[in-house]
Specification:
Length: 118
């Protein structure tokens, strides 16, 4: 995920530097903030999955749902704060929050490739 965020950072600096020259620092701030929050969300996800494994089925479902809603609420709060800081910050945060899905696809592709050659 960090590699995808670094790619987004580089591409965003170039694009922001061309179209919005005074907003480069704000975009970088948004990417850094978004990356930190995305990593924290992954840590929360891992923690909730590990804890729910020790609960009964009904308790685990409720626990996972609660933490799912908590993560979405936190994401909304982070996006709202970023929106207050400016469009460039919001775009940087959004790009890094959305980097999780491509990161998962890249990891899955690499794992399938390794299994194919083993």
């Amino acid at each position: 995920m960090l590699a995808v965020c670094l790619i987004a950072l580089g591409a965003g600096i170039i694009i922001t530097g061309i179209w919005f020259p005074g907003e480069v620092f704000k975009y970088v701030y948004g990417v850094v903030f978004g990356t930190i929050f995305a990593v924290l969300k992954l840590m929360l996800l891992e923690r909730s999955i590990n804890k729910s494994a020790n609960l009964s089925e009904g308790q685990a479902q409720n626990y996972i749902r609660l933490h799912y809603m908590l993560r979405y609420f936190l994401t909304g709060a982070v996006l709202a704060v970023a929106a207050l800081k400016g469009l460039s910050v919001l775009i940087g945060v959004f790009v890094c929050l959305m980097s999780l899905r491509p990161s998962i696809h890249i990891v899955n592709w690499q794992m399938k490739k390794q299994k194919k050659f083993e």
